[in-house]
Amino acid sequence: MIRTPEALRSRLAEARRDAPDATVGLVSTIGSLHDGHIDLIDTARERAEIVVVSTFVNPLRFGTTADFEAYPRTPDADRLLLESLGVDVVFAPETADLLPRGTATTKISAGDLGLRYEGRFRPYYFDGLLTVEAALFHLIEPDVAVYGLRDRQRIFLVERMIRDLFFDVDVATVETVRGDDGLPVSTRASLLDDRDRQAAGKLTVALDAAASNADRGVDACIAAAQSALMGEPRINLEYLTVVDPATFLPVDENHRGRALALIAATVAGHRFIDNTEISLQ
Known about the structure:
By secondary structure, this protein is of the alpha/beta class. 40% of the residues lie in helices and 20% in strands. It has 10 helices and 8 strands.
């Protein structure tokens, strides 16, 4: 594992000297890797000859020091998994290496959209995410960056940053890896007991209901999703909305065609987000 930006640049310079025409793919994570990350890495391998995975636990994505310190870290398991997948470069810096000024560092702003949906509940999150993502783009200069579709808002904002700041990076996306109950595979999902997981599975049911009723318009779509969640006290719904994928703003009642239904909720103190593509008629 490479720890410092200087060592990362040196390693990539060496790799590019050995293979001048090789393309570089980036999968940026905050460690604690699971099956969902494997698909991201496989896609990066399909799109690039050199695969870089970062496992930086970004403090700018957490609201408090306690939340940051409580995030599960599995560096040994991560290393073994990445070795088994043949990842070329693993970048696992300490905070002082990548953010020498800590949370006082210069930040990229996600703007108004960064304060909607996820940003409404975590107003620091997207500024912190984009700040580190931009630093990784600058250090690694990837040809392609790979993201999972579970976090559509992240993808939208990263793609906008790429355009606005003239990064020469393509974005590749990977379908969400789900368990047998439809719940996206995640670190948080693995912490749920059986009853809580059963409750969390209703978030997927709600999205399915939204998609099934999209032909009746946006109001019926949202009402159907809300109805699917009724009677489940373990779910604390934070938001349920339908957005235009071109703007990521809520659709109006006259919107027709492609849209995204977004949902976020907490179950047993763990926070979950999900989405599905729908077609409004």
